Amino acid sequence: MKSGWKPEQLEQELKNKIIGQDDYLHDLSTCLWLHNQRLEHFLRTGKRINRPKYNMLVIGKSGMGKTSTIEAAAKLLNIPVVIEDASELRGSGWKGKQVSEIVRDIYEVGSQMENVSDTELEFSIVILDEIDKVFERRTHDQSFLPINNLLKFMEGMEAGYGEGNSRLRINTHNLLFIAIGAFDGLNEIIEKRIHPKTIGFQSEREEEVFEKNILKQVTPRDLADYGVSEQFLGRLPLLTVMNELEASDYEEILLNSELSPVRQLNQLMQQEQNAGISITRNAARQLAQRVKDSALGTRALQGEVINLLKETLYSLQGDEENKEYLIEYENDFVIKPIQGKREPVQGKKRKVNFHLTEKEMECVRLVKLNSIGEDDKSIRIYAEDLFESFEAVNYEETTGEGLTDLYDYMTIKNAQIFTAAAIKEMLLMEKGKKTEKNMLTLLTTIRRLKPNNEEELPFEEPNENRFLHKMHFQSYAEMRKVKGIAWEVVRKYALLLYQYEFTLYDDVVCFE
Fold this sequence. Notes:
This protein is of the alpha/beta class. The chain folds into three domains: 7-241, P-loop containing nucleotide triphosphate hydrolases (Rossmann fold); 247-343, Helicase, Ruva Protein, domain 3, CATH 1.10.8; 350-501, no CATH class. It is 47% helix and 10% strand. The protein has 20 helices and ten strands. It has helices at residues 7-15, 22-45, 66-77, 101-111, 147-155, 186-194, 204-213, 220-226, 230-234, 247-256, 261-273, 281-294, 299-316, 358-366, 376-388, 403-406, 409-430, 439-448, 466-469, 476-501, and strands at residues 56-59, 81-85, 125-129, 158-161, 168-171, 176-181, 238-241, 276-279, 322-329, 333-339. It has a five-stranded parallel beta sheet with strand order 2-3-6-1-7, with helices on both faces. It has a three-stranded mixed beta sheet with strand order 8-9-10. A two-stranded antiparallel sheet has the order 4-5. A hairpin with a 3-residue loop joins strand 9 (322-329) and strand 10.
């Protein structure tokens, strides 16, 4: 997690992606913050804290976003996350997936992440999906179930996978386990406990409200009656329940969520075909009601959108007369083509002149950078944090568009690496000096950083600044575009930090 982040800040970030699950996001953010305290202590001191783990149990119907929410959070935190289908796990000696194979999966995920050490893998997040299926009796022989091995794994042990020199090992004491499941039939157990003899004394409205919210009233005793062992529940101190989404929630997802299938498809078509995809509010409302009636959850949104657009997408590349395609609803769904010249989204961005006004210069000089760690991982994370603030919104000042609306993934990634390279260069130049590092120093470094001549692309591999070696450019113009993005992100971020930290300084005004 970003150093200094609070649970409410993480919750707000997730709300940009996940709609209608405020309680779940609140509880998940608390859970991840607690986990992060252990990780931050280890990174700061090199010592592990021997304290209880705050594992979580999440209850919710299929397709409500349980897994995708955790994945989104893990991406924000740069923490490895593995998803295990708990229903496929088997007890020791039975043919099937063994609990020890989770060790292999953690190493595989970690190998795909930059600057994550084997020791840090001990703080990975393990999602135990379909956990309710583990407690369904499939045979009279209880050794078939993996629960005993899983309990030891969750409690903390030295676990391994493989043989000989290739054997992978991990200490599971610091892994965070999040178990999720639908628990079909649990509502009947709760209802029986709350109203054991109530028959026919509630209005239809009261029964509807009661049925909708009944899982919110679950207790550990209800789960035990369902068949979940008390030993397993004892290892999951945090319990949360997903909301059942309303049609209005699905509508909000389509129109405003970062994970909206309409928005994602629009970004892809903008970047590759210079064509837009959009939807009216009325069409979103009708589509949301259809998904609500299907009871398939949020994953049904993607299928509904692609089915509406499949014929349009089939002919989109050759249909150059239209610049946008609008999903409308007029007694039925229709796709309305909007005529116009297709223009690259990058064309919307003004040219960067690498210049600060006197007011801006005075402000960014006050924003200090003494807290940045000098190791490559700390620098990379700091650079990613800078870009995250403008990823979805507010990079383009006039329209409010974010970086992903304007540039493709590799361009943004190269700009992040360029920023990290500039930070590293600044730290190397300032090494041993007593002067304070600030945002003005960083912006000056970005402006000066370039290849020795326009023909030497990419940068020659340096001895100490490996970030320069990671950048790949086809031309000097491409390098300058990436450099301009890095400059603008740092400049905007510095001014935002100034506004946040120095609002009492009335004699310096950075914003007109």
